[in-house]
Amino acid sequence: MPGKTYVQTNINGEHVDFLCEPRQSLLECLRDVIGLTGTKEGCNDGNCGACTVEMDGRIVTSCLVLGVEAEGKEITTIEGIADGSTLHPIQQSFLENAALQCGICTPGFIVASKSLLDQNPDPTEHEIRFWLANNLCRCTGYDKIIRAVQDAAVKMQEA
Amino acid sequence: MATTRDYEPNVVLSNQDYNVVGTRPLRPDGADKVTGRALYGADFAAAGLLSGSVLRSPHAHARIKSIDTSKAEALDGVRAVVTSADFPQGGEGPVLWQRDNVLASDKALYRGHAIAAVAAASPHIAEEAVSLIDVDYEVLTPVTDVQSSMKGDAPILHDSLMTDELGEKADKASNVASHFQHVKGDVKAGFKEADVVIEREFTTKTVHQGYIEPQAATALWNNDGRLHIWCSTQGSFAARDACARILDIPVSQIRVVPLEIGGGFGGKIDVYLEPVAALLSKKTGTPVKLVMSRADVLQGTGPTPGSYAKIKIGAKKDGTITAAHAYLAMEAGAYPGSPVGAGAMCVLAPYDLENALVDGYDVVVNKPKTAAYRAPGAPNAAFAGEQVIDEVAKAIGMDPIDFRMKNAAKEGTRQVHGPTFPRVGYEEVLEAMKSHPHYNAPLDGPNQGRGVAVGFWFNIGFDSACNIAVNADGTVTLQEGSTDIGGTRASIAMQAAEVLTLPYEKVRPTVVDTDTIGFTAVTGGSRTTFATGWAAYEAAQDVRTKMIDRAAQIWEVDADTVELEDAVFKSKSDPELSMTFAELAGQLGRSGGGITGTAAVSPSGVGGAFAGNIVDVEVDPETGKTEILRFTVVQDAGKAIHPSYVEGQMQGGAVQGIGWALNEEYYMSDSGTMDNVSLLDYRMPTSLDLPMIDTVIVEVANPGHPYGVRGVGEAPIIPPTPAIANAIENAIGTRLFALPMNPAAVAKAVMDK
Amino acid sequence: MKWIDYATPHSVREAVDVLSEAGGRARVMAGGTDLLVALRAGVYDIDLVVDGKNIPELNEITYDPTNGLTLGAAVACYKIYGNQAVATAYPGLIDAASLIGGTQIQGRASLGGNLCNATPSADSIPPMIALNGTANIAGPNGNRQVAIEDFCTGVRQNALGSDEILVSLHFPAPVANSGANYIRFIPRNEMDIAVAGAGVSVVLDNGDIKEARVSLASVAPTPLFVQEAGDAIAGKPANDETVRIASGIARDAARPITDMRGTIEFRQHLCEVLTRRALNTAIERAKENN
């Protein structure tokens, strides 16, 4: 009878350990094993970006990463974006720009946008759209999301 | 790719200013949604929770001869298996169809039709168990498009379904569930008067709402007989009533707790998982959670119809339309009930016509039972109607906006299906389009084109309830039952704040369950800000009256000498008598007790919404790829309570329309199955496929609402497909008559020219 | 997904041993962006996933202007286009690496994985063929090389034995006056699988095409190396007429099917358009690169 694998990893700056079956994706482990439900499932095959997390400094679709692959990695999820009780400028910008309607894609977009601005603090509109093309939104038509990222970029550079 | 920075985007053409209404505060559920804390359907957890999985038919049309669940039941970790036999039996017509759609009984009517379900210790075990259920199918020939299904030799889906032909029941089985007509004047005579008559045929394919969150529901059939359901839904009461009907239990035995919902657009009004989870929970005695996969969503929920339309329009050289005939046939999916009726109400609505005829056909096909998708039926009809309008305008040499202005529906115009328009803002929308910088900007390249189109959606009212309680610190809590898909918590709270003259931050709205609020109809039909807003308005008026009475009582004056302005109660007779809302709130306990307000409304003054698009495209003639260069949405919102969220509805609906126009379709195989069951090949627009979507909110107040609100959610999806078709025609000189206008179709049109 | 076991060898030797023991019931995983989707869909029936990302040779990127580029099979796309020297020397590879999937996919997907999947629509294979790439394979009997145009043998079939592992890809150093380009046609602007794709390379000599290689995606059971297209234009002046000779041959060589991504006619038409456009870009790049 095959057993579970013990995984040790770092999530949002904290050491986290858990048990999982090799077939369970990182997305499943985050949501169902560890209890971090902020990362969402939209398609389970890498096409919608709702499950986006940052792993060792790069954004990935966690539905296409196995939980066992998290061993030794540094992972940032939506739950780790705010600084304690202070929202990250990107989170604040999404609210001020009404860049969310139903909000299901928002965690993925925030993690992806933060990764963009960490690497490219002053992106053009085209660069933003290209970077975020792996994140689908069905409610907003993207307009206010792009404006929110542009706004956050300005605020973060001023700070 | 062009951006639209040259002029001020997102304009609000307002005619009345309020204190709170019309401002842009932060939504109250915002912090939860940007931090991942908000709980959506699949996030729900409970002690003892089991995971479910659904077996779905691989065949588009088959008789179900037997179902053997024994191997699934024997799998380690499986706790229950259910089929339709576990439902209470009986019923016919819509009641039976609704239950059969949730779990098929004698026939599988589409690939993806739910057949059985399993509850197990983990989702992987449940998935494995489902693969062990043996179903003996007698495979039948499917029919999957509306025109084939209307023919005499089509395979019949329902032996008992006979056409309701203009009110008379036919006597043999058919796939045409009904044929109705709307008649105004005499179209034959009208066409004779015309100088130009154009008739064209159009087809559209099945398209899905594309909400990013798959359906999810958890049910607990408790030991006391009460059924609790936690789900993502556009209507907790609708879900409750549907489950009561299917499970044959009183509504009072069911409590539906709406969780946050990740998009619906009409597709999360019908129930799919809730009754199944309930059956499984009844057997296991524990909570059972069912979550759909993306493939389940595409194959097992309710897309919007594919359709066929034939539109004939005649006009005089001076631009007067003399007659119009719209023939609309829409796919209902596996059971009757396509939105052809709604499409028929909208197709000719923008036009003041003396002579008009609409024929509508509701047709079943072996595809998932269709569900509402944002102004259901109207986009299909507009793709056809607005293109013929465009062609007629060209034929008589008239600007397409001027042509529409010449024939514009207005207050007093009688629509083809009977009602007369009250005050509507259609002419104002046309004027805003005509004078917009976009319409007057030059196109600056070969293979570029511009198109316009308009659309109308009637919007609905129906029931909403609201409760408000005053807190001792001068804030109020507000309970309402409209699940919040797009920011309506804010727009509803703003209307209450306006009445109470409080700042928005002092109103704390909560969306509550079916045990906690009066009956509230769905979050859909563009009704929420209108009707639930009205309930909040009335409940706030109730609170306002009671607070004024209390102030009067404390001051020992007549209530009609007390007024409330800017959150201060004042005596009209004695200027010394004044206290703030918060001060009065703090005294309620010792002056007679707390104050609450309540309302249950079903407002009748619904205002319809007109929307228009201006779109610029660039076509690569060698590949057929169409790039959207610039897109402007103009819409009459009556009054934009929260302009940012009104803009959001306009932009979101526009982009769904763009996807519908250029790429989205159910690609059907010969055996009636959908080949492209993933978001890789069901192609919805990404951020890279679009420019900014500029918006102009026109405000022609709806006289039927205290703040003039007209529903805004649905009208935006209607004009994009014809506007883009008109733009492509302008770019390449050829018109496309079928959706989607994907690169292969456009390239072929260019080559065939 | 049905049950799988997971192994993480730390050397090529160890990986080969694990694969040999598994007797055909294992597959190697690099980025996993194709493998996990395929496993969930039941495309492969295996018991063991062997993670290649902890093997040093599969992670290396070594480039010098004499010996060329050795690219580990598991190197993710973002590392390739993020490597300045490689990006400058091999823009044809970067074309593919930067358009597979989207940003998140590129955070994991590798060119080696793309090659081993051996799907006809793989975006990286035509440019790898155009750039004369070879595959370095390790097995129980030692190492061997296979030209990339010979690596794919059918739909999702490749030249690897079940006990072999793709270690790295090798590309010769770019010569002066050479240029390469990969373009594909997709209905959206990102995220889609190619309806058709063309990967080409040219070497110029005084305004003439000295040699050219043309390869196509999505128009045959495997990525197609259209040798005759390149051969037909060798020695001809690098102009529009010459380019159209090659693009015409490419169109005629294509053997597409009709499926949910495109019809036969559309794909044939696109082969000509894409080959022509890619050759024009490659020629421009070759002119700048001297």
What keywords describe this structure?
heterotrimer; B: 753 residues; alpha+beta; seven-stranded mixed β-sheet; 20 helices; 27% helix; 25% strand; globular; disordered N terminus; C: 290 residues; Uridine Diphospho-n-acetylenolpyruvylglucosamine Reductase, domain 2; Uridine Diphospho-n-acetylenolpyruvylglucosamine Reductase, domain 3; Enolase-like, domain 1; 3 domains; four-stranded antiparallel β-sheet; 11 helices
Oligomer: heterotrimer
* SSE topology string of chain C: EHEHEEEHHHHHHEEEEEEEEEHHH
Q: Structural class of the secondary structure composition of chain B? A: alpha+beta
- Radius of gyration of chain B equals 27 Å
For the secondary structure, the number of strands of chain B is: 29
Terminus-to-terminus distance of chain B: 27 Å
Helical segment tally of chain C?
11
Backbone shape of chain C: globular
State the low-pLDDT regions of chain C, or none. none
Number of strands of chain C: 14
Q: Percent of residues of chain B in helical segments? A: 25-40%
CATH topology of the largest domain in chain C: Uridine Diphospho-n-acetylenolpyruvylglucosamine Reductase, domain 3
Q: Helicity level of chain C, as a percent range?
A: 25-40%
Number of domains of chain C: 3
CATH class of the largest domain in chain C: Alpha Beta
Q: Outline of chain B, from the CA principal axes?
A: globular
Could you explain how this protein is built, in words?
The complex is a heterotrimer of chains A (159), B (753) and C (290). Chain A is of the alpha+beta class and 159 residues long. Chain A has two domains: 5-80, Ubiquitin-like (UB roll); 89-158, DNA polymerase, domain 1 (Orthogonal Bundle), CATH 1.10.150. Chain A is 34% helix and 16% strand. Chain A has five helices and five strands. Chain A has helices spanning 26-34, 89-96, 106-119, 125-131, 143-158; strands at residues 5-11, 14-20, 52-55, 58-61, 74-76. In chain A, a hairpin with a 2-residue loop joins strand 3 and strand 4 (58-61). In chain A, helix 2 packs across helix 5. The longest helix of chain A is centred in the C-terminal third of the chain and has 16 residues, at 143-158. The termini of chain A are far apart. The relative contact order of chain A is 0.15. In chain B, strand 8 and strand 9 (168-173) form a beta hairpin. In chain B, 27% of the residues lie in helices and 25% in strands. Mean pLDDT of chain B is 96; it is low at 1-7. Chain B has a seven-stranded mixed beta sheet with strand order 4-6-2-15-12-13-14. Chain B has a seven-stranded mixed beta sheet with strand order 9-8-10-18-17-16-11, sandwiched between helices. The radius of gyration of chain B is 27 Å and the shape is globular. The mean pLDDT of chain C is 97. Chain C folds into three domains: 5-51, Uridine Diphospho-n-acetylenolpyruvylglucosamine Reductase, domain 2, CATH 3.30.43.10; 56-171, Uridine Diphospho-n-acetylenolpyruvylglucosamine Reductase, domain 3 (2-Layer Sandwich), CATH 3.30.465; 178-288, Enolase-like, domain 1. In chain C, 34% of the residues lie in helices and 26% in strands. In chain C, helix 2 links the parallel strand 2 and strand 3. In chain C, helix 9 (227-233) runs antiparallel to helix 10 (240-253) and helix 10 (240-253) runs antiparallel to helix 11 (264-288). In chain C, the strands form four sheets. A five-stranded antiparallel beta sheet of chain C has the order 4-5-10-6-7. A four-stranded antiparallel beta sheet of chain C has the order 11-12-13-14. Chain C has eleven helices and 14 strands. The interface between A and C is medium-sized, with 30 and 27 residues.
